[in-house]
Design a protein that fits this description.
The complex is a heterodimer of chains A (161) and B (173). In chain A, 43% of the residues lie in helices and 32% in strands. Chain A is built from four helices and seven strands, in the order H-E-H-E-E-H-H-E-E-E-E. Chain A has helices at 2-35, 44-53, 70-78, 89-104, and strands spanning 40-42, 57-63, 66-69, 115-122, 125-133, 139-148, 151-160. A five-stranded mixed beta sheet of chain A has the order 1-6-7-4-5. In chain A, helix 3 runs antiparallel to helix 4. The mean pLDDT of chain A is 88. The model of chain B has no long low-confidence stretch (mean pLDDT 82). Chain B has a five-stranded mixed beta sheet. In chain B, strand 4 and strand 5 (156-170) form a beta hairpin. Chain B has two helices and five strands. Chain B has helices at 2-66, 84-90, and strands spanning 81-83, 103-108, 127-132, 139-153, 156-170. The chains are: A alpha+beta (161), B alpha+beta (173). The A-B interface holds A 11, 15, 18, 22, 26, 41, 43-45, 48-49, 51-57, 64-65, 67, 69, 100, 103-104, 138, 140, 161 and B 19, 23, 27, 30, 34, 45, 48-49, 52, 55-56, 59-60, 63, 77, 80-81, 109-111, 142-146, 148, 153-156, 158-165.
Chain lengths: 161, 173
């Protein structure tokens, strides 16, 4: 009787071990697939947005005969300039960028895009960084390289969907 | 006695084989479930990618049309700049021979209320219905563009650019 019980117990232990082993393997696969670095899928739409946004005429004027476009505004921000109305050019740059992104792409919990991340940066310095919403693992976006005031700048917009 | 023992052993072995087959079945079912879960996950991401790719192709078509000399700005901005001064004059010109598209619409991206553009209300309007062949379109392509015009501000002629979107209606093959 005791021998039968022991045999039964051994089989149960074997069964549990198999289940545990399979679960561990499945868990390892799951963790690997989740932790896979999320790569941005380049989007022509976002690239066209970035190219067009650079031409956008901002509310910042350097003089009565010159209104800055977005590209000029980046340059003005790099030089810490002020607009004609004494507003900081970097503040105008931040406001203009967020307004352009939010009117062009629907970003929100129930919208097509769940979050965005916009950055103007060079190798070791970030000029502006804007982010909104909750990040997901699927990213689409675009990046442009700009040469302004002898500096190589990157403009990057990531949209999380 | 020996026969009885043999019968007992046989029964025991049969039970063991049955137990083993149930175990194997359970493991196989478990793997099938995992595979199904993985396939469903892969399929949804593949579908997402397919939608994005067809959109990309459509955007390229819109970029090609906005880069043509009938639309583009005189400056070097290429296919990302559309001259609205040209568009308001060329509105309703026949593009049917030039591009096999159903319609070309340009929309200013703004929080303002939508208003169709004509010579009388330009530039205080949002929508340019550039061309409509009145044919059915099955797909729409869109690309962001800068809508630029020349305007006199405080006595100086300025190049004013706003953000817009060009939308092309075409028949998907």
């Amino acid at each position: 009787m005791t021998g039968k019980f022991r045999k039964g117990q051994e089989e149960m232990v074997g069964f549990v071990m198999i289940i545990v082993l399979v679960s561990v393997i499945a868990l390892v696969f799951l963790v690997i697939s989740i932790r896979k670095p999320t790569e941005m899928r380049t989007s022509k739409e976002v690239e066209s947005f970035l190219h067009s946004a650079l031409l956008f005429t901002s509310s910042c004027q350097s003089s009565s005969e010159r209104v800055y476009d977005f590209k000029d505004l980046i340059e003005a921000c790099l030089k810490n300039e002020r607009c004609l109305d004494e507003e900081n050019s970097c503040d105008v740059l931040n406001n203009t960028a967020s307004e352009l992104i939010e009117t062009s792409f629907s970003v929100g919990e129930n919208a097509r895009y769940k979050a965005y991340n916009f950055k103007i940066y060079e190798e070791n310095e970030t000029l502006i960084s804007l982010r909104k919403g909750n990040y997901t693992s699927s990213i689409t976006g675009g990046e442009l390289l700009l040469y302004i005031s002898a500096r190589n700048l990157n403009i990057r917009l990531e949209l999380y969907y | 006695m020996v026969k009885k023992n043999m019968k007992k052993e046989n029964k025991k072995s049969q039970f063991k084989i049955q137990q083993m087959s149930f175990m194997l079945l359970a493991v196989v079912l478990f793997f099938i479930l995992v595979a199904l879960f993985w396939l469903a996950f892969q399929y949804s991401s593949l579908k997402k990618q397919a939608t994005e790719t067809s959109k990309e192709q459509a955007v390229l078509l819109a970029e090609f049309i906005s880069g043509s000399s009938e639309f583009s700005c005189a400056s070097e901005q290429g296919s990302y700049c559309v001259d609205t001064d040209k568009i308001i004059v060329l509105k309703n010109a026949s593009y049917k021979e030039l591009w096999p598209v159903s319609y070309i619409k340009i929309k200013k991206i703004t929080k303002e209320k939508e208003k169709d553009c004509n010579i009388a209300n330009y530039p205080n309007c949002t929508n340019f219905n550039v061309f409509d062949a009145k044919t059915e379109s099955t797909s729409t392509a869109g690309s962001f563009i800068a809508l630029c015009r020349h305007e006199r501000v405080a006595g100086y002629v300025q190049n004013i650019c706003e953000l817009g979107k060009i939308m092309i209606g075409y028949e998907a093959k």
